[in-house]
Amino acid sequence: MIDYKKIKKSLKKALKAIEQMEMLDILMRAQAAGHLPPNTFQLFSQEFAKVSQSLNQATHSATLPSSSAAPSENALPPMSYQEWLKKLADRQSTSPSVAPAPSPLSTAGADEALRQSEQRLRTIIDSTPLGIVITNEDGIIEYANQAYCDIYGYTAQEMIGKPFTIVVPPEKKDFWMDLHRKYLDGYKEIRGEWEVRHKSGRPIYILADAARIIGTDGKRKKVTFVSDITEMIKLKEEARQSELQLLQAEKMSSLGQMVAGLAHEMNTPLGFVRNNLELLESKHLEIRELLNAYDKLRTQIMYGTPNDVAMMLAQIDQLSQKVKNRVYEQAPSLYRNSIEGIDRIQDLILNLKNFSRLDEASFKPTNVNESIESTLKIANHLFKGGIQVIKEFSPLPDIMAYPAQLNQVFLNLITNAVQAVDERNGRIVIRTMQQGDNVVIKIADNGKGIPPEHLKRIFEPFFTTKDVGQGTGLGLSIAYRIIEKHKGKIDVQSQVGKGTEFTIQLPINPMQTTAKSTSSPFVESPFLE
Ligand SMILES: Nc1ncnc2c1ncn2[C@@H]1O[C@H](COP(=O)(O)OP(=O)(O)OP(=O)(O)O)[C@@H](O)[C@H]1O
Ligand SMILES: [Mg+2]
Protein backbone atom coordinates (compact mmCIF):
# COMPACT_ATOMS: atom_id res chain seq x y z
CA MET A 1 0.00 0.00 0.00
CA ILE A 2 1.28 3.43 -0.81
CA ASP A 3 1.51 5.59 2.23
CA TYR A 4 0.53 8.97 0.82
CA LYS A 5 0.27 10.51 4.25
CA LYS A 6 3.87 9.56 4.89
CA ILE A 7 5.00 10.98 1.55
CA LYS A 8 3.17 14.23 2.19
CA LYS A 9 4.63 14.44 5.68
CA SER A 10 8.13 13.84 4.32
CA LEU A 11 7.66 16.47 1.64
CA LYS A 12 6.52 18.97 4.24
CA LYS A 13 9.64 18.18 6.28
CA ALA A 14 11.79 18.62 3.17
CA LEU A 15 10.20 22.01 2.48
CA LYS A 16 10.76 23.06 6.04
CA ALA A 17 14.41 22.01 5.83
CA ILE A 18 14.86 24.07 2.64
CA GLU A 19 13.27 27.09 4.31
CA GLN A 20 15.63 26.67 7.26
CA MET A 21 18.59 26.41 4.91
CA GLU A 22 17.58 29.62 3.20
CA MET A 23 17.38 31.27 6.60
CA LEU A 24 20.81 29.92 7.57
CA ASP A 25 22.21 31.12 4.26
CA ILE A 26 21.03 34.65 5.04
CA LEU A 27 22.54 34.45 8.51
CA MET A 28 25.83 33.15 7.16
CA ARG A 29 25.98 35.94 4.63
CA ALA A 30 25.30 38.45 7.41
CA GLN A 31 27.96 36.84 9.52
CA ALA A 32 30.46 36.82 6.66
CA ALA A 33 29.76 40.49 6.05
CA GLY A 34 30.67 41.16 9.67
CA HIS A 35 27.17 41.97 10.91
CA LEU A 36 27.15 39.14 13.41
CA PRO A 37 29.69 37.99 16.00
CA PRO A 38 32.38 35.73 14.46
CA ASN A 39 31.70 32.84 16.85
CA THR A 40 28.25 32.37 15.33
CA PHE A 41 29.89 30.87 12.22
CA GLN A 42 30.51 27.57 13.94
CA LEU A 43 27.00 27.50 15.24
CA PHE A 44 25.48 28.14 11.81
CA SER A 45 27.63 25.57 10.10
CA GLN A 46 26.65 22.90 12.59
CA GLU A 47 23.05 23.83 12.19
CA PHE A 48 23.45 23.74 8.42
CA ALA A 49 24.78 20.17 8.51
CA LYS A 50 21.90 19.09 10.69
CA VAL A 51 19.30 20.66 8.42
CA SER A 52 20.91 19.22 5.30
CA GLN A 53 20.71 15.79 6.88
CA SER A 54 17.05 16.19 7.71
CA LEU A 55 16.44 17.31 4.10
CA ASN A 56 18.20 14.17 2.91
CA GLN A 57 16.10 11.98 5.15
CA ALA A 58 12.85 13.64 4.23
CA THR A 59 13.44 13.50 0.47
CA HIS A 60 14.59 9.91 0.73
CA SER A 61 11.53 8.94 2.61
CA ALA A 62 9.28 10.87 0.19
CA THR A 63 10.60 9.04 -2.83
CA LEU A 64 10.83 5.54 -1.41
CA PRO A 65 7.88 3.16 -1.41
CA SER A 66 6.72 2.65 2.16
CA SER A 67 7.76 -0.99 2.10
CA SER A 68 11.42 -0.04 1.57
CA ALA A 69 13.89 0.17 4.37
CA ALA A 70 13.43 2.95 6.85
CA PRO A 71 14.70 6.25 5.49
CA SER A 72 17.13 6.64 8.36
CA GLU A 73 18.96 3.55 7.10
CA ASN A 74 19.37 4.92 3.61
CA ALA A 75 19.74 8.65 4.08
CA LEU A 76 23.18 10.19 4.34
CA PRO A 77 24.74 10.24 7.81
CA PRO A 78 25.19 13.54 9.65
CA MET A 79 28.13 15.50 8.26
CA SER A 80 30.36 17.97 10.00
CA TYR A 81 30.89 21.32 8.36
CA GLN A 82 34.51 20.40 7.55
CA GLU A 83 33.43 17.18 5.84
CA TRP A 84 30.80 19.10 4.01
CA LEU A 85 33.33 21.57 2.63
CA LYS A 86 35.61 18.73 1.61
CA LYS A 87 32.79 17.02 -0.24
CA LEU A 88 31.99 20.30 -1.88
CA ALA A 89 35.60 20.69 -2.98
CA ASP A 90 35.57 17.15 -4.41
CA ARG A 91 32.46 17.88 -6.39
CA GLN A 92 33.46 21.27 -7.73
CA SER A 93 35.96 20.41 -10.41
CA THR A 94 36.08 24.06 -11.37
CA SER A 95 37.46 24.95 -7.97
CA PRO A 96 39.56 21.96 -6.98
CA SER A 97 41.50 23.81 -4.35
CA VAL A 98 38.58 24.82 -2.16
CA ALA A 99 40.20 25.53 1.12
CA PRO A 100 39.26 23.83 4.31
CA ALA A 101 37.06 25.84 6.60
CA PRO A 102 38.19 29.42 6.47
CA SER A 103 38.89 31.09 9.71
CA PRO A 104 35.74 32.93 10.63
CA LEU A 105 37.89 35.76 11.82
CA SER A 106 39.72 36.46 8.54
CA THR A 107 38.16 39.05 6.20
CA ALA A 108 39.48 37.23 3.15
CA GLY A 109 37.50 34.29 4.44
CA ALA A 110 34.27 36.29 4.34
CA ASP A 111 34.01 36.26 0.52
CA GLU A 112 35.08 32.67 0.43
CA ALA A 113 32.47 31.75 3.04
CA LEU A 114 29.83 33.54 1.03
CA ARG A 115 30.85 31.78 -2.18
CA GLN A 116 30.96 28.45 -0.44
CA SER A 117 27.63 29.06 1.21
CA GLU A 118 26.13 29.53 -2.25
CA GLN A 119 27.92 26.48 -3.61
CA ARG A 120 26.67 24.48 -0.71
CA LEU A 121 23.09 25.47 -1.28
CA ARG A 122 23.38 24.72 -4.98
CA THR A 123 24.92 21.32 -4.30
CA ILE A 124 22.17 20.42 -1.87
CA ILE A 125 19.46 21.56 -4.24
CA ASP A 126 21.06 19.75 -7.17
CA SER A 127 21.62 16.52 -5.30
CA THR A 128 18.17 16.25 -3.73
CA PRO A 129 15.80 13.78 -5.40
CA LEU A 130 13.07 16.39 -4.95
CA GLY A 131 12.44 18.32 -8.18
CA ILE A 132 12.68 22.08 -7.66
CA VAL A 133 11.77 24.71 -10.22
CA ILE A 134 11.59 28.49 -10.00
CA THR A 135 9.13 30.20 -12.32
CA ASN A 136 8.68 33.94 -12.83
CA GLU A 137 5.44 35.90 -13.00
CA ASP A 138 5.06 35.11 -16.72
CA GLY A 139 5.42 31.40 -16.06
CA ILE A 140 8.92 31.24 -17.52
CA ILE A 141 11.30 28.75 -15.93
CA GLU A 142 14.27 30.58 -14.40
CA TYR A 143 15.81 27.67 -12.61
CA ALA A 144 15.28 23.90 -12.56
CA ASN A 145 17.36 21.51 -10.48
CA GLN A 146 18.70 18.22 -11.76
CA ALA A 147 15.90 16.14 -10.21
CA TYR A 148 13.25 18.35 -11.85
CA CYS A 149 14.90 17.93 -15.26
CA ASP A 150 15.24 14.16 -14.71
CA ILE A 151 11.57 13.76 -13.77
CA TYR A 152 10.49 15.31 -17.09
CA GLY A 153 13.34 14.01 -19.25
CA TYR A 154 14.66 17.45 -20.31
CA THR A 155 18.08 19.02 -19.85
CA ALA A 156 18.33 22.24 -17.85
CA GLN A 157 19.13 24.15 -21.09
CA GLU A 158 15.95 22.80 -22.67
CA MET A 159 13.89 23.99 -19.73
CA ILE A 160 15.29 27.32 -18.65
CA GLY A 161 13.70 30.24 -20.47
CA LYS A 162 10.68 28.13 -21.54
CA PRO A 163 7.17 28.40 -20.12
CA PHE A 164 6.64 25.87 -17.34
CA THR A 165 3.59 24.63 -19.29
CA ILE A 166 5.89 22.53 -21.52
CA VAL A 167 5.37 19.80 -18.92
CA VAL A 168 1.57 19.88 -18.81
CA PRO A 169 -0.88 18.27 -21.25
CA PRO A 170 -1.54 20.70 -24.16
CA GLU A 171 -5.26 21.00 -23.36
CA LYS A 172 -4.39 21.97 -19.77
CA LYS A 173 -1.96 24.78 -20.57
CA ASP A 174 -4.52 27.57 -20.01
CA PHE A 175 -5.72 26.00 -16.79
CA TRP A 176 -2.16 25.83 -15.48
CA MET A 177 -1.25 29.37 -16.50
CA ASP A 178 -4.38 30.59 -14.75
CA LEU A 179 -3.53 28.54 -11.66
CA HIS A 180 0.01 29.94 -11.71
CA ARG A 181 -1.26 33.53 -11.70
CA LYS A 182 -3.86 32.86 -9.05
CA TYR A 183 -1.25 31.11 -6.96
CA LEU A 184 1.09 34.12 -7.12
CA ASP A 185 -1.86 36.38 -6.28
CA GLY A 186 -2.36 34.21 -3.20
CA TYR A 187 -5.76 32.69 -3.77
CA LYS A 188 -5.07 29.23 -5.16
CA GLU A 189 -2.85 26.39 -4.01
CA ILE A 190 -0.67 24.06 -6.08
CA ARG A 191 -0.48 21.35 -3.42
CA GLY A 192 -1.68 17.95 -4.64
CA GLU A 193 -1.26 15.11 -7.10
CA TRP A 194 -1.18 16.09 -10.76
CA GLU A 195 -0.94 14.40 -14.12
CA VAL A 196 1.78 15.99 -16.25
CA ARG A 197 3.79 15.09 -19.37
CA HIS A 198 7.26 13.66 -19.81
CA LYS A 199 9.30 15.02 -22.72
CA SER A 200 8.43 11.81 -24.60
CA GLY A 201 4.75 12.68 -24.25
CA ARG A 202 3.95 9.88 -21.82
CA PRO A 203 1.84 10.89 -18.82
CA ILE A 204 3.58 10.99 -15.46
CA TYR A 205 2.18 11.72 -12.01
CA ILE A 206 3.67 14.10 -9.52
CA LEU A 207 3.06 15.18 -5.97
CA ALA A 208 3.66 18.94 -5.87
CA ASP A 209 3.73 21.83 -3.49
CA ALA A 210 4.90 25.37 -3.97
CA ALA A 211 6.15 28.48 -2.17
CA ARG A 212 5.95 32.16 -3.11
CA ILE A 213 9.20 34.10 -2.93
CA ILE A 214 10.48 37.52 -3.94
CA GLY A 215 13.51 37.19 -6.20
CA THR A 216 16.67 39.31 -6.10
CA ASP A 217 15.07 41.31 -8.93
CA GLY A 218 12.27 42.22 -6.50
CA LYS A 219 9.70 40.26 -8.50
CA ARG A 220 7.34 37.52 -7.37
CA LYS A 221 8.36 33.96 -8.16
CA LYS A 222 6.90 30.55 -7.60
CA VAL A 223 9.14 27.78 -6.30
CA THR A 224 7.59 24.40 -6.99
CA PHE A 225 8.69 21.18 -5.32
CA VAL A 226 7.88 18.05 -7.21
CA SER A 227 8.12 14.35 -6.42
CA ASP A 228 7.58 11.71 -9.13
CA ILE A 229 4.87 9.32 -7.92
CA THR A 230 4.15 7.60 -11.26
CA GLU A 231 5.40 4.26 -9.99
CA MET A 232 3.28 4.55 -6.85
CA ILE A 233 0.18 5.50 -8.81
CA LYS A 234 0.79 2.47 -11.04
CA LEU A 235 1.09 0.21 -8.00
CA LYS A 236 -2.05 1.73 -6.55
CA GLU A 237 -3.92 1.11 -9.80
CA GLU A 238 -2.64 -2.48 -9.96
CA ALA A 239 -3.79 -3.05 -6.38
CA ARG A 240 -7.19 -1.59 -7.27
CA GLN A 241 -7.43 -3.84 -10.32
CA SER A 242 -6.62 -7.01 -8.38
CA GLU A 243 -9.11 -5.97 -5.70
CA LEU A 244 -11.71 -5.58 -8.46
CA GLN A 245 -10.85 -8.99 -9.87
CA LEU A 246 -11.20 -10.56 -6.45
CA LEU A 247 -14.54 -8.88 -5.96
CA GLN A 248 -15.65 -10.10 -9.36
CA ALA A 249 -14.57 -13.65 -8.48
CA GLU A 250 -16.44 -13.34 -5.18
CA LYS A 251 -19.57 -12.22 -6.92
CA MET A 252 -19.33 -15.01 -9.46
CA SER A 253 -18.66 -17.60 -6.79
CA SER A 254 -21.64 -16.75 -4.61
CA LEU A 255 -23.84 -16.19 -7.62
CA GLY A 256 -22.75 -19.54 -9.03
CA GLN A 257 -23.56 -21.28 -5.76
CA MET A 258 -26.94 -19.69 -5.63
CA VAL A 259 -27.84 -20.36 -9.23
CA ALA A 260 -26.71 -23.99 -9.03
CA GLY A 261 -28.68 -24.56 -5.84
CA LEU A 262 -31.74 -22.91 -7.20
CA ALA A 263 -31.63 -24.74 -10.50
CA HIS A 264 -31.52 -27.98 -8.56
CA GLU A 265 -34.38 -26.97 -6.31
CA MET A 266 -36.57 -25.93 -9.20
CA ASN A 267 -35.84 -29.00 -11.25
CA THR A 268 -37.76 -31.40 -9.00
CA PRO A 269 -41.13 -29.58 -8.98
CA LEU A 270 -40.72 -28.72 -12.65
CA GLY A 271 -40.19 -32.42 -13.40
CA PHE A 272 -43.36 -33.61 -11.70
CA VAL A 273 -45.50 -30.70 -12.89
CA ARG A 274 -44.51 -31.68 -16.44
CA ASN A 275 -45.31 -35.39 -15.86
CA ASN A 276 -48.68 -34.50 -14.42
CA LEU A 277 -49.48 -32.26 -17.35
CA GLU A 278 -48.59 -35.04 -19.83
CA LEU A 279 -50.90 -37.50 -18.05
CA LEU A 280 -53.68 -34.95 -17.84
CA GLU A 281 -53.23 -34.13 -21.50
CA SER A 282 -53.69 -37.81 -22.54
CA LYS A 283 -56.71 -38.00 -20.26
CA HIS A 284 -58.12 -34.92 -21.88
CA LEU A 285 -57.89 -36.62 -25.32
CA GLU A 286 -59.80 -39.66 -24.02
CA ILE A 287 -62.49 -37.47 -22.47
CA ARG A 288 -62.83 -35.62 -25.76
CA GLU A 289 -63.35 -38.98 -27.55
CA LEU A 290 -66.03 -39.92 -25.01
CA LEU A 291 -67.79 -36.58 -25.45
CA ASN A 292 -67.73 -37.05 -29.25
CA ALA A 293 -69.36 -40.46 -28.75
CA TYR A 294 -72.09 -38.85 -26.64
CA ASP A 295 -72.73 -36.37 -29.42
CA LYS A 296 -73.14 -39.18 -31.90
CA LEU A 297 -75.44 -41.04 -29.49
CA ARG A 298 -77.60 -37.96 -29.21
CA THR A 299 -78.02 -37.90 -33.00
CA GLN A 300 -78.82 -41.61 -33.08
CA ILE A 301 -81.45 -41.23 -30.35
CA MET A 302 -83.14 -38.48 -32.36
CA TYR A 303 -82.85 -39.95 -35.86
CA GLY A 304 -81.53 -43.52 -35.72
CA THR A 305 -82.90 -47.01 -35.00
CA PRO A 306 -83.00 -48.61 -31.52
CA ASN A 307 -80.31 -51.02 -32.71
CA ASP A 308 -77.94 -48.16 -33.56
CA VAL A 309 -78.58 -46.64 -30.15
CA ALA A 310 -77.75 -49.90 -28.39
CA MET A 311 -74.52 -50.14 -30.37
CA MET A 312 -73.57 -46.59 -29.52
CA LEU A 313 -74.29 -47.13 -25.83
CA ALA A 314 -72.00 -50.18 -25.83
CA GLN A 315 -69.27 -48.07 -27.43
CA ILE A 316 -69.77 -45.32 -24.85
CA ASP A 317 -69.55 -47.80 -22.02
CA GLN A 318 -66.27 -48.98 -23.41
CA LEU A 319 -64.92 -45.45 -23.76
CA SER A 320 -65.98 -44.38 -20.28
CA GLN A 321 -64.33 -47.51 -18.84
CA LYS A 322 -61.15 -46.40 -20.56
CA VAL A 323 -61.49 -42.86 -19.24
CA LYS A 324 -62.17 -43.86 -15.67
CA ASN A 325 -58.76 -45.42 -15.06
CA ARG A 326 -56.10 -44.52 -12.44
CA VAL A 327 -55.25 -41.17 -14.04
CA TYR A 328 -58.92 -40.19 -14.05
CA GLU A 329 -59.17 -41.00 -10.36
CA GLN A 330 -55.93 -39.19 -9.64
CA ALA A 331 -56.71 -36.13 -11.76
CA PRO A 332 -57.77 -33.87 -8.87
CA SER A 333 -54.62 -34.73 -6.92
CA LEU A 334 -52.49 -34.32 -10.06
CA TYR A 335 -53.92 -30.85 -10.44
CA ARG A 336 -53.42 -30.10 -6.75
CA ASN A 337 -49.90 -31.50 -6.86
CA SER A 338 -49.00 -29.42 -9.90
CA ILE A 339 -50.35 -26.28 -8.29
CA GLU A 340 -48.24 -27.03 -5.22
CA GLY A 341 -45.21 -27.61 -7.44
CA ILE A 342 -45.72 -24.24 -9.06
CA ASP A 343 -46.17 -22.68 -5.60
CA ARG A 344 -42.84 -24.17 -4.59
CA ILE A 345 -41.15 -22.66 -7.60
CA GLN A 346 -42.77 -19.34 -6.83
CA ASP A 347 -41.64 -19.63 -3.23
CA LEU A 348 -38.09 -20.35 -4.36
CA ILE A 349 -38.08 -17.30 -6.56
CA LEU A 350 -39.32 -15.25 -3.61
CA ASN A 351 -36.62 -16.73 -1.40
CA LEU A 352 -34.04 -15.98 -4.01
CA LYS A 353 -35.25 -12.40 -4.02
CA ASN A 354 -35.11 -12.30 -0.22
CA PHE A 355 -31.76 -14.00 -0.19
CA SER A 356 -30.08 -11.73 -2.68
CA ARG A 357 -32.11 -8.68 -1.63
CA LEU A 358 -31.37 -7.32 -5.06
CA ASP A 359 -34.03 -4.73 -4.55
CA GLU A 360 -32.54 -3.46 -1.28
CA ALA A 361 -28.78 -3.62 -1.21
CA SER A 362 -28.80 -1.12 1.62
CA PHE A 363 -27.67 -0.96 5.19
CA LYS A 364 -30.87 -1.51 7.15
CA PRO A 365 -32.44 -3.07 10.24
CA THR A 366 -32.07 -6.82 9.73
CA ASN A 367 -33.41 -9.77 11.63
CA VAL A 368 -30.71 -12.41 11.72
CA ASN A 369 -33.16 -15.24 12.47
CA GLU A 370 -35.14 -14.35 9.34
CA SER A 371 -31.95 -14.10 7.31
CA ILE A 372 -30.91 -17.61 8.37
CA GLU A 373 -34.42 -18.94 7.61
CA SER A 374 -34.34 -17.54 4.11
CA THR A 375 -30.82 -18.91 3.58
CA LEU A 376 -31.91 -22.36 4.78
CA LYS A 377 -34.67 -22.38 2.19
CA ILE A 378 -32.16 -21.58 -0.51
CA ALA A 379 -29.81 -24.27 0.82
CA ASN A 380 -32.61 -26.82 1.20
CA HIS A 381 -31.46 -28.95 -1.73
CA LEU A 382 -28.15 -29.58 0.06
CA PHE A 383 -29.69 -31.52 2.95
CA LYS A 384 -29.68 -34.90 1.32
CA GLY A 385 -30.03 -38.29 3.01
CA GLY A 386 -30.09 -38.17 6.76
CA ILE A 387 -28.60 -34.71 7.25
CA GLN A 388 -30.46 -33.04 10.09
CA VAL A 389 -30.65 -29.30 10.62
CA ILE A 390 -31.49 -28.21 14.15
CA LYS A 391 -32.46 -24.60 14.74
CA GLU A 392 -32.21 -23.12 18.22
CA PHE A 393 -33.12 -19.52 17.65
CA SER A 394 -33.55 -17.02 20.47
CA PRO A 395 -35.57 -13.87 19.88
CA LEU A 396 -33.21 -11.24 18.51
CA PRO A 397 -33.31 -7.47 18.14
CA ASP A 398 -32.84 -6.19 14.59
CA ILE A 399 -29.26 -5.30 13.83
CA MET A 400 -28.03 -2.70 11.35
CA ALA A 401 -26.56 -4.68 8.46
CA TYR A 402 -26.39 -5.42 4.76
CA PRO A 403 -28.82 -8.39 4.79
CA ALA A 404 -27.82 -9.78 1.40
CA GLN A 405 -24.19 -9.92 2.51
CA LEU A 406 -25.02 -11.65 5.80
CA ASN A 407 -27.04 -14.23 3.86
CA GLN A 408 -23.97 -14.89 1.79
CA VAL A 409 -21.97 -15.58 4.97
CA PHE A 410 -24.63 -17.92 6.36
CA LEU A 411 -24.97 -19.77 3.04
CA ASN A 412 -21.26 -20.39 2.90
CA LEU A 413 -21.02 -21.62 6.51
CA ILE A 414 -24.03 -23.90 6.03
CA THR A 415 -22.65 -25.21 2.71
CA ASN A 416 -19.27 -25.90 4.33
CA ALA A 417 -20.98 -27.75 7.19
CA VAL A 418 -23.05 -29.88 4.78
CA GLN A 419 -19.95 -30.71 2.78
CA ALA A 420 -18.10 -31.72 5.96
CA VAL A 421 -20.68 -34.08 7.46
CA ASP A 422 -21.60 -37.66 6.66
CA GLU A 423 -24.78 -37.86 4.58
CA ARG A 424 -26.11 -40.66 6.77
CA ASN A 425 -25.92 -39.02 10.20
CA GLY A 426 -24.87 -35.40 9.63
CA ARG A 427 -26.11 -32.91 12.22
CA ILE A 428 -25.93 -29.18 11.78
CA VAL A 429 -26.96 -27.07 14.75
CA ILE A 430 -27.64 -23.38 14.21
CA ARG A 431 -28.02 -21.31 17.35
CA THR A 432 -28.65 -17.60 17.72
CA MET A 433 -28.62 -15.51 20.87
CA GLN A 434 -28.14 -11.98 22.12
CA GLN A 435 -25.10 -11.25 24.26
CA GLY A 436 -24.95 -7.66 25.49
CA ASP A 437 -24.68 -5.35 22.48
CA ASN A 438 -24.05 -8.25 20.13
CA VAL A 439 -26.02 -10.84 18.28
CA VAL A 440 -24.23 -14.20 18.27
CA ILE A 441 -24.68 -16.93 15.67
CA LYS A 442 -23.17 -20.37 16.10
CA ILE A 443 -23.11 -22.89 13.28
CA ALA A 444 -21.84 -26.27 14.44
CA ASP A 445 -21.49 -29.57 12.62
CA ASN A 446 -20.44 -33.09 13.54
CA GLY A 447 -18.32 -33.36 10.39
CA LYS A 448 -14.74 -34.35 9.76
CA GLY A 449 -13.21 -31.27 11.44
CA ILE A 450 -10.28 -29.14 10.33
CA PRO A 451 -6.66 -30.14 11.06
CA PRO A 452 -4.64 -27.43 12.89
CA GLU A 453 -2.35 -26.83 9.89
CA HIS A 454 -5.41 -25.96 7.77
CA LEU A 455 -7.12 -23.98 10.50
CA LYS A 456 -4.50 -21.24 10.12
CA ARG A 457 -5.27 -20.89 6.43
CA ILE A 458 -9.02 -21.31 6.01
CA PHE A 459 -9.63 -17.54 5.77
CA GLU A 460 -7.07 -17.11 3.02
CA PRO A 461 -8.60 -16.41 -0.38
CA PHE A 462 -8.40 -19.50 -2.60
CA PHE A 463 -7.48 -21.89 0.21
CA THR A 464 -9.53 -25.01 -0.33
CA THR A 465 -9.24 -28.72 0.36
CA LYS A 466 -12.11 -29.48 -1.99
CA ASP A 467 -11.85 -30.95 -5.45
CA VAL A 468 -11.82 -28.69 -8.50
CA GLY A 469 -15.40 -27.69 -9.18
CA GLN A 470 -16.42 -28.36 -5.56
CA GLY A 471 -14.95 -25.24 -4.00
CA THR A 472 -13.10 -22.11 -5.02
CA GLY A 473 -11.73 -21.45 -1.54
CA LEU A 474 -13.28 -17.99 -1.50
CA GLY A 475 -16.23 -18.64 0.82
CA LEU A 476 -14.58 -17.99 4.17
CA SER A 477 -12.41 -15.13 2.96
CA ILE A 478 -15.56 -13.40 1.70
CA ALA A 479 -17.31 -14.20 4.99
CA TYR A 480 -14.40 -12.73 6.95
CA ARG A 481 -14.46 -9.53 4.96
CA ILE A 482 -18.21 -9.16 5.29
CA ILE A 483 -18.14 -9.69 9.05
CA GLU A 484 -15.21 -7.28 9.35
CA LYS A 485 -17.21 -4.71 7.39
CA HIS A 486 -20.02 -5.13 9.93
CA LYS A 487 -17.46 -4.55 12.72
CA GLY A 488 -18.07 -8.08 13.92
CA LYS A 489 -15.94 -11.08 14.62
CA ILE A 490 -15.79 -14.59 13.24
CA ASP A 491 -14.17 -17.42 15.17
CA VAL A 492 -13.76 -21.12 14.60
CA GLN A 493 -13.15 -24.10 16.80
CA SER A 494 -12.58 -27.50 15.36
CA GLN A 495 -11.50 -30.96 16.28
CA VAL A 496 -10.60 -33.53 13.67
CA GLY A 497 -13.12 -36.35 13.65
CA LYS A 498 -15.53 -34.52 15.97
CA GLY A 499 -16.71 -31.43 14.16
CA THR A 500 -16.44 -27.70 13.70
CA GLU A 501 -18.17 -24.70 15.15
CA PHE A 502 -18.11 -21.22 13.66
CA THR A 503 -19.13 -18.34 15.92
CA ILE A 504 -20.10 -14.98 14.54
CA GLN A 505 -20.57 -11.93 16.71
CA LEU A 506 -22.32 -8.97 15.18
CA PRO A 507 -22.78 -5.65 16.94
CA ILE A 508 -26.40 -4.52 17.01
CA ASN A 509 -25.25 -1.12 15.87
CA PRO A 510 -21.91 -1.27 14.06
CA MET A 511 -21.83 2.53 13.79
CA GLN A 512 -21.22 2.72 17.53
CA THR A 513 -18.59 -0.01 17.57
CA THR A 514 -14.89 0.02 16.88
CA ALA A 515 -13.66 -2.85 14.69
CA LYS A 516 -13.11 -6.06 16.57
CA SER A 517 -11.66 -8.22 13.84
CA THR A 518 -7.97 -8.59 13.44
CA SER A 519 -7.03 -6.52 10.44
CA SER A 520 -5.32 -9.49 8.80
CA PRO A 521 -6.64 -12.96 9.44
CA PHE A 522 -4.09 -14.39 7.09
CA VAL A 523 -0.84 -13.75 8.90
CA GLU A 524 -1.59 -15.79 11.95
CA SER A 525 -4.68 -17.55 13.11
CA PRO A 526 -6.49 -15.83 15.93
CA PHE A 527 -8.16 -19.13 16.66
CA LEU A 528 -5.36 -21.40 17.71
CA GLU A 529 -4.01 -21.29 21.22
N1 LIG B 1 -17.35 -26.84 8.60
C1 LIG B 1 -16.19 -27.21 8.08
N2 LIG B 1 -15.71 -28.47 8.32
C2 LIG B 1 -14.53 -28.87 7.80
N3 LIG B 1 -13.75 -28.10 7.01
C3 LIG B 1 -14.16 -26.87 6.74
C4 LIG B 1 -15.40 -26.35 7.25
N4 LIG B 1 -15.54 -25.08 6.82
C5 LIG B 1 -14.44 -24.81 6.06
N5 LIG B 1 -13.62 -25.88 6.02
C6 LIG B 1 -12.31 -25.93 5.33
O1 LIG B 1 -11.93 -24.64 4.97
C7 LIG B 1 -11.65 -24.57 3.57
C8 LIG B 1 -11.98 -23.20 3.06
O2 LIG B 1 -13.39 -22.96 3.12
P1 LIG B 1 -14.05 -21.91 2.14
O3 LIG B 1 -15.48 -21.85 2.45
O4 LIG B 1 -13.26 -20.65 2.21
O5 LIG B 1 -13.78 -22.51 0.71
P2 LIG B 1 -14.43 -23.80 0.05
O6 LIG B 1 -15.64 -24.22 0.80
O7 LIG B 1 -13.34 -24.80 -0.12
O8 LIG B 1 -14.82 -23.24 -1.37
P3 LIG B 1 -16.08 -22.26 -1.69
O9 LIG B 1 -16.61 -21.77 -0.40
O10 LIG B 1 -15.48 -21.19 -2.52
O11 LIG B 1 -17.02 -23.10 -2.41
C9 LIG B 1 -12.47 -25.69 2.98
O12 LIG B 1 -11.93 -26.14 1.75
C10 LIG B 1 -12.36 -26.76 4.06
O13 LIG B 1 -11.15 -27.46 3.99
MG1 LIG C 1 -17.15 -22.75 1.32
From TrEMBL:
Domain Histidine kinase residue range list: 261-510
Catalytic activity: ATP + protein L-histidine = ADP + protein N-phospho-L-histidine
InterPro entries noted in UniProt: HATPase_C_sf, HATPase_dom, His_kinase_dom, HisK_dim/P_dom, HisK_dim/P_sf, PAS, PAS-like_dom_sf, PAS_fold
Keywords recorded for this protein, A-Z: ATP-binding, Kinase, Nucleotide-binding, Phosphoprotein, Transferase, Two-component regulatory system
Keyword Kinase recorded: yes
NCBIfam families assigned: sensory_box (TIGR00229)
Name of the protein in its database record: histidine kinase
Species in which this protein is naturally found: Candidatus Thermochlorobacter aerophilus
Lineage, highest ranks first: Bacteria, Pseudomonadati, Chlorobiota, Chlorobiia, Chlorobiales
